[in-house]
Amino acid sequence: MRAAIQQETGRDKLEVLDDVEAVGFGPGRVRIRIRATGLCHSDLSAMNGVLPQPAPFVPGHEGAGEVLDVGDGVTGLRPGDRVLMCWLPACGDCPSCKRGQTHLCLAGFMNAGTPNFRRPGGDVFGFAGTGTFAEEVVVPADCAVPIPDDVPYEIAALIGCGVTTGLGAALNTAKVAAASSVAVIGCGGVGISVIQGARACGAAQIIAVDPVAARREAALRFGATEAVAPEELADAKARITGGEGFDYVFEVVGKSATARTAYETTRRGGTLCVVGAGAMDDTFQVNMFELFFDEKRILPSLYGGGDVLRSYERAIALWRAGRIDLEGLITHRVRLDGINDALDQMRSGTALRTCIEI
Known about the structure:
This protein has 358 residues and is α/β, with parallel strands linked by helices. It contains twelve helices and 19 strands. Helix 5 crosses helix 11. The longest helix is centred in the middle third of the chain and has 13 residues, at 189-201. The radius of gyration is 20 Å and the shape is globular.
């Protein structure tokens, strides 16, 4: 079968090869034919080494498709079922799951160390234990979540990561209050989803911050009340909040420099929500006096900070009701052969989400 492979960490281009085999099928696992997958910035971060991932590997973790086969012991799934990919399934038995923090379960991360694919030259891993830039993938059954018939594959794929992450940061982690002021730093697909989540919560003012003009324009279409370039943020803070700072500030870039800007843009007693996935050697610093004196809440948000299955259902309900726009997030479409064009579109900031049709 065909798949796009990152041969070595640090390479800018993927190789689309046709000698790849999905492996590992057996009890408790399912084989999925991928129909659509989104390109998430985390895929780029894995390619350049910001996020740890053994190589060679097949990127992609935001996918949807149909079940081809189920292994022994699998219940609730059968061939032909339409599913989205959950890259962080909950085991149900670990301390995090028992506390109700299923999004902190480590079982899904452990999958990343087991090869999902094979080529004549040896084993190939799947990013985050999945690897959706391939025609087929074998994953644990908990990674395959059934979707209703009215949800297109490309929409389901987005819900599998970026939409759930962004909406959840606003609804689950920060719990944005009605009539509050919000700033979102970084307005790609996840940042736009944060904006939509803040709007669904009833925020009065939503300021989008991004260096790319096209993304600022898009943010306004998705519910931002104003969009500014990073160098204009200080003026917006002074003008909109009287210099006090915003009630909620979301950092959706994954860098300590923008996290520090977000902290300084948050009012005393306000909430800084860190959504971007950054590097292990990039340290965010606050001094002990300001931490005590300003009493700002610093809340990281992993995968939307809540039960992901419930978050999927909520995203579908909001989409059906017309409360959020998911079709509009897809600004580009390519086939698997065009994957490197999709990478360039994301690096340049011209794409919110590129749908790879497989």
